[in-house]
C-alpha cells in the first residue's frame, strides 16, 4: 500500500502490532502519501455525472475518424448519390424516357422514310435499317397471316424448329433447300422417308440429321392427326377456337417467348409423339401461322392481319 514502513508499537506481552488507523492516516498525510480526502471525493461526484451526460450525447452523433474505412464508405455513398442526381437531371430517370427523347429528336444522318409505303413507316421495331431484305419481306407479306393449308402448316412447323440455335433470316435463306429436301412438304411422301434417304438429305442440303429425322417423325404424326381429327389445320386452330389471339403490344420487349397457350399445345403434341415442339418453338410457330397476331399496335400489319381474320371467319 504505502512505500514507507508502518509504525509499530509494543503490546503488554512484548510483541509488535500495527499502529491505530488514525495514527497511520496522520502519518500518511504528513508524508504526502494520502492523496485524496472526503472533500475531494465530493468534488468528483458532480463531475462524473456531467461526464456521463457528455458521453451519452456523443453517442447520438457518430463521427468517423478521418482515413477510416467507415469514413471512406460514407464519402463513396455521398459521391454515388451526387452522380445519380446529375444523371437524372441530364438524361431522365428511366431508359424509356431516354428512348422517347431520342426518338423525338430528328436525326441529321438518318435516311428519310419512304413516302409511298406506309407499312415501312412504322414496322415492328425488330425490323431495322440493317435487317436483311428477305426478312423484311417476310414480315410485310407472311408473318402473322392466318394459314389453313396443311402442307404450309407442316412447312412452318419445320422452319420454326430449324431456327433453334439460328435465326429467321438464316432459315429463310435456306427455305428453298428445305422445300427441295422435304418434297415440297408433302406430308405423305416425307412420312415414307427411309434412314438412307434422311442421311442423304442431311448431307446434300446441310441440314442436321436430327432435324431431318424430326421432320419425318412429325409427318407420321400428322398422318395420325388426319385419321383422328381430319386435318392438321382443324387440330391446331381448335386450340384457339378457330379465332386468332389478338394481342395489343406496344413495345417489342413485351412480347413473350412463350405463353400458356403455346405450353398447352406443346404438351399435347409431345404426348402425340411430335418432336422439336417445345413451348418456345410452338409460340414462334403460332406467330408465323397467324394463330396469334403479335405485330405491334403501331405496325400497320396489325390491323391488316385482323382484317384477314375477319374475312376468314365470314
TrEMBL record:
InterPro entries on file? Adenine_glyco, DNA_glycosylase
Q: Name one Pfam family in it.
A: Adenine_glyco
Q: Which domain of life is it from?
A: Eukaryota
Tell me which UniProt keywords the record has, alphabetically.
Glycosidase, Hydrolase, Metal-binding, Zinc
Q: Which residues bind Zn(2+)?
A: 124, 139, 295, 299
**Location of the region described as Disordered in the Swiss-Prot/TrEMBL record:** 1-52
What broad class of enzyme is this? hydrolase
Recorded GO molecular functions are: DNA-3-methyladenine glycosylase activity
Is Zinc among this UniProt entry's keywords?
yes
E.C. number? 3.2.2.20
Where exactly are the transmembrane stretches of this chain? none
Gene3D superfamilies referenced in this protein's UniProt entry, alphabetically = Hypothetical protein, domain 2 (1.10.340.30)
Q: Which PANTHER family match?
A: DNA GLYCOSYLASE SUPERFAMILY PROTEIN, OS04G0501200 PROTEIN
Q: What is this protein called?
A: DNA-3-methyladenine glycosylase I
Organism of origin: Salvia divinorum
The root-end lineage is: Eukaryota, Viridiplantae, Streptophyta, Embryophyta, Tracheophyta
